């Protein structure tokens, strides 16, 4: 949440920082701003409410020059989106500037104290206290001043500070992510890797409590007490094009179409040569646990719901998904025989990270199902299963969801084989089904245009009910979430059998049902439920398997998907659901890549 970019080096810093901000706009788009300067000269600032395009226009009128710059794209927490609340924040004398991501929990007492000491505040933000605190503690060395300021501050955040006469930037991290990019005679700082990809792949991930002094020749990292920390330089294997639109109108549609290739990557090299098991390169022993707790938020939690069923069915191990934001506050029961699986695209979602820490406190063994390397969760788990989805820039998750589901399928096969609940023949059969899935998603994508009539219909209503049974209850939740995020329509999801216990009251000619109903064990019951909808004038749009004309007969419109094992059908039905959300969003004129109020990588509680 909130994108941070900084640069020190020989080039015009504001141009590079602006480019980096564009690449991080998915982290927040309420306002944006840049400070640029040459050491010794004045700090010049341009900042505007609105998206980066607004800032860009302002910069055309008032260009910034200088070899040092820092910039920010904001997802508002304290203070509405406005020019004044936009970052960077400067002290009254214009000597110190900061950008900040996260929340300063004790900002009110700090602000009161600083105001009493004569500081004047220009914004309503919590962030601004940092600039004034750094000024107060400034005895000549900027990094010392930042360290002293941070000792007074509570919360989860990341910050970068500049001082008008200093040739370096000072960055600090307390939970929120930050990565330093090492170039040739130039150094970058950013809250996420995609900002750095066009410039360098050599990076240092900052850790909690790090204070980094960033100079053109490199980075020096200390802890909060000023003790130097040895850093590891890592190389990122994502290529720059992976984070570009590459001719597609939106990232979302590009990422939906990448899914067959993403599945190949998730599976890549992970099927055992004998074809009856999965190789995951994990230290954990699947026979040591008697329970799996899956910790995740949003779409990742729905992938977790699919995972829960897969683990129970294939490996006969009790599994449950816990909404990460609730988990740590409800005194959960976990112990050494619990495996806690944290699922996250960004690896930075604070709710998931804190839930993971709670599970660790209880003694659980931990595994991450993650996309971003070097992320906070990656560093804190015992083992990681990377999904290899590549950078996901569209704010609504698509390809990462499918890759997470695929990763759970791999895990379930591995656990089933290790725990003796899947025979070698069954393992072989599952793997051969998994190998088919990229092709099945390809076929589902070829039917993109079948979604149009359903999208036309949904664009006319205000509320939609998604229903699914068995493993596709999770699909219904995910389909409804995608629709509401992208189109701003009200969408709710229920297990199909639950409909008659209340939600059926919503059904009328203006509240249609999207039935996620690929062929499965409970098809006859699903058909009865669809009849109940139609008996009440409800329209039914059904996602059904190619080989199932019975269900199709009970729908007003159908979206057909290639047939596959019921337990793998969440992978296939994801495609029409995502395309539907996308097409409805387009028809309603929504910004599908950056839906209102949202941000990717949610680093505040
Ligand atoms: C929905 C969406 C969010 C994320 C959630 C978790 O489209 O993108 O619900 O899935 O914020 O994010 P990660 O996976 O980064 O932990």
What would a concise description of this structure say?
The chain is α/β, with parallel strands linked by helices and 605 residues long. The chain folds into three domains: 242 residues, Glutamine Phosphoribosylpyrophosphate, subunit 1, domain 1; 186 residues, Glucose-6-phosphate isomerase like protein, domain 1 (Rossmann fold, 3-Layer(aba) Sandwich), CATH 3.40.50.10490; 140 residues, Glucose-6-phosphate isomerase like protein, domain 1 (Rossmann fold, 3-Layer(aba) Sandwich), CATH 3.40.50.10490. 34% of the residues lie in helices and 22% in strands.
Describe the structure.
The protein has 605 residues and is of the alpha/beta class. It folds into 3 domains: 3-244, Glutamine Phosphoribosylpyrophosphate, subunit 1, domain 1, CATH 3.60.20; 255-440, Glucose-6-phosphate isomerase like protein, domain 1 (Rossmann fold); 448-587, Glucose-6-phosphate isomerase like protein, domain 1 (Rossmann fold, 3-Layer(aba) Sandwich). The protein is 34% helix and 22% strand. An 8-stranded antiparallel β-sheet has the order 3-2-4-1-10-9-11-14, covered by helices on one side. The radius of gyration is 25 Å and the shape is globular. The mean pLDDT is 95. Bound molecules: fructose -6-phosphate. Fructose -6-phosphate binds next to helix 8 and helix 15.
**How many strands appear in the DSSP assignment?**
24
What small molecules accompany the polymer chains? fructose -6-phosphate
Number of helices: 18
Instruction: Round the mean pLDDT to the nearest integer and report it.
Output: 95
Structural class: alpha/beta
Overall domain count: 3
CATH class value of the largest domain: Alpha Beta
Strand order of the largest sheet: 3-2-4-1-10-9-11-14
Share of residues in helices: 25-40%
C-alpha termini separation: 11 Å
Q: Could you tell me the strand content as a percent range?
A: 15-25%
Largest sheet properties: 8 strands, antiparallel
CATH topology of the largest domain: Glutamine Phosphoribosylpyrophosphate, subunit 1, domain 1
Runs with pLDDT <50, length 5+? none
Computed CA radius of gyration, to the nearest angstrom? 25 Å
The CATH homologous superfamily of the largest domain: Aminohydrolase, N-terminal nucleophile (Ntn) domain
Please state the second-level CATH architecture of the largest domain. 4-Layer Sandwich
**Which of globular, elongated, flat, extended, rod-shaped describes the shape?**
globular
């Amino acid at each position: 949440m909130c994108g941070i970019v900084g640069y020190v080096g020989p080039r015009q810093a504001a141009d590079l920082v602006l480019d980096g901000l564009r690449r991080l706009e998915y982290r927040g788009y309420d306002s944006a701003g840049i400070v640029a300067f040459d050491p010794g000269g004045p700090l010049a600032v341009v900042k505007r409410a609105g998206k980066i395009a607004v800032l860009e226009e302002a910069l055309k009128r008032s260009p910034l020059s200088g070899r040092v710059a820092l910039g920010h794209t904001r997802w508002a927490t304290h203070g509405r989106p406005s020019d004044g609340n936009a970052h960077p924040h400067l002290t009254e004398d214009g000597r110190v500037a900061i950008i900040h991501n996260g929340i300063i929990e004790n900002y009110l007492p700090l602000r009161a104290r600083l105001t009493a000491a004569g500081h004047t505040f220009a914004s309503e933000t919590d962030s601004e206290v940092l600039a004034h605190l750094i000024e107060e503690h400034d005895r000549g060395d900027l990094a010392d001043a930042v360290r002293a300021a941070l000792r007074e501050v509570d919360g989860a955040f990341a910050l970068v500070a500049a001082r008008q006469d200093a040739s370096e930037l000072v960055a600090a991290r307390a939970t929120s992510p930050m990565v330093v990019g090492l170039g040739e005679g130039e150094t970058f700082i950013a809250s996420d890797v995609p900002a750095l990809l066009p410039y360098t792949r050599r990076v240092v991930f900052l850790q909690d409590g790090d204070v980094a002094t960033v100079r053109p020749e490199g980075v020096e990292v200390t802890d909060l007490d000023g003790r130097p920390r040895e850093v590891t330089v890592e190389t990122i294997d994502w290529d720059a094009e992976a984070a570009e639109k590459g001719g597609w109108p939106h990232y979302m549609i590009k990422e939906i179409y990448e899914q067959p290739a993403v599945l190949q990557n998730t599976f890549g090299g992970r099927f055992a040569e004998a074809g009856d098991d999965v190789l995951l390169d994990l230290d954990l022993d699947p026979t040591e646990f008697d329970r799996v707790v899956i910790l995740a938020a949003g779409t990742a939690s729905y992938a977790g719901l699919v995972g829960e069923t897969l683990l129970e069915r294939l490996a006969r191990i009790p599994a449950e998904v816990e909404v990460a934001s609730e988990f740590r506050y409800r005194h959960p029961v976990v112990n050494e025989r619990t495996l806690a699986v944290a699922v996250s695209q960004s690896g930075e979602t604070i709710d998931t990270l804190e839930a993971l820490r709670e599970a660790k406190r209880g003694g659980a063994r931990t595994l991450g199902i993650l996309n971003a390397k070097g992320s906070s969760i990656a560093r804190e788990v015992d083992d990681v299963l990377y999904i290899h989805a590549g950078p996901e820039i569209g704010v609504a998750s698509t390809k990462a969801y499918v890759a997470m589901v695929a990763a759970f399928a791999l895990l379930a096969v591995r656990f089933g084989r290790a725990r003796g609940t899947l025979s070698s023949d069954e393992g072989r059969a599952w793997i051969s089904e998994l190998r088919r899935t990229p092709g099945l998603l390809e076929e589902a994508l070829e039917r993109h245009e079948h979604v149009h009539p359903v999208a036309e219909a949904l664009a006319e209503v205000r509320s939609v009910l998604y229903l699914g049974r068995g493993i596709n209850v999770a699909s219904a939740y995910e389909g409804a979430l995608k629709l509401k995020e992208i189109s701003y329509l009200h969408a709710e999801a229920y297990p199909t059998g639950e409909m008659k216990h209340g939600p059926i009251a919503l059904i009328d000619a203006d509240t249609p049902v999207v039935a996620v109903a690929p062929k499965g064990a409970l098809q006859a019951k699903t058909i009865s439920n669809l009849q109940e909808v139609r008996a009440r004038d409800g329209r039914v749009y059904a996602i059904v398997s190619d080989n199932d004309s019975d269900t199709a007969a009970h729908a007003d419109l159908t979206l057909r998907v290639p047939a596959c094992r019921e337990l793998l059908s969440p992978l296939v039905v994801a495609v029409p659901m995502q395309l539907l959300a996308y097409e409805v969003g387009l028809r309603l004129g929504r910004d599908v890549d950056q839906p209102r109020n949202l941000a990717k990588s949610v680093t505040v509680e």
